[in-house]
Amino acid sequence: MIIxxxxxxxxxxxxxxxxxxxxxxxVTDASAGDWSVxxxxxxxxxxxxxxxxxxxxxxxxxxxxxxAEALGVEVEFALACPSVGEVTSGYERPEKLGVDRWLxxxxxxxxFRQRCVVVDAGSALTFDFIDAKAGHLGGYxxxxxxxxxxxxxxxxxxxxxxxxxxxGTDYGQNTDSAVQNGCFAMTLALIEKIxxxxxxxxxxxxxxxxGGDAELLLAHLPNAVVYKPELVLDGLALVLP
Length: 241
Description:
By secondary structure, the chain is an alpha/beta fold. The chain folds into two domains: 2-77, Nucleotidyltransferase, domain 5 (2-Layer Sandwich), CATH 3.30.420; 93-230, ATPase, nucleotide binding domain (Nucleotidyltransferase, domain 5, 2-Layer Sandwich). The protein is 36% helix and 27% strand. The protein has seven helices and twelve strands. Strands 3-2-1-4-5 form a five-stranded mixed beta sheet, sandwiched between helices. The protein has a five-stranded mixed beta sheet with strand order 10-9-8-11-12, with helices on both faces. Helix 3 (99-112) crosses helix 7 (231-239). The longest helix has 28 residues, at 175-202.
């Protein structure tokens, strides 16, 4: 049995599999450092724990210690590298590519085996482009929905935003909705522009969407966009088979 864990900046997503079948899955607060939910999986006697970690060395070491004590297993941390299988990194220094992006790239190529764009709508909004020969061309990183809202809050006096409000595309009729919906519209516009330009250049292109804000965005995007909430977890099996 294998536990795969995707540790982001704010939360960690995990799933337990055996022979390719998912037995359990969940989400926990990565910043709190409470990994008791994973410790409780000792009853399954997992023999591997594979991890993507972008939350820093301290978080990684804490997880390593907890897993070793609770499960008696050495954590395997994925790393970005120049290539895996057919896929080659487009970064000048491949090790500097975020490991979560690298895993999503690998899983995106494995999903389509064709030219595609991987969009991760998390704390940051990232785009990674893969050509028809499995070459990563590079990508974009811009602020995610909440990061944009927080930036406006921090840089503008007397703006107070209700973070629990669900964003949409309607015109805001109060400051909360004007900020939330404005930032959401900017995110959608960028995604739509990239889809249009990528498709216009060489014909249709495959798009896969993942990340915490993905479901909100999906309702406003073309039906051809494929939603894969565990794309980074899927990539762990490719880089650490």
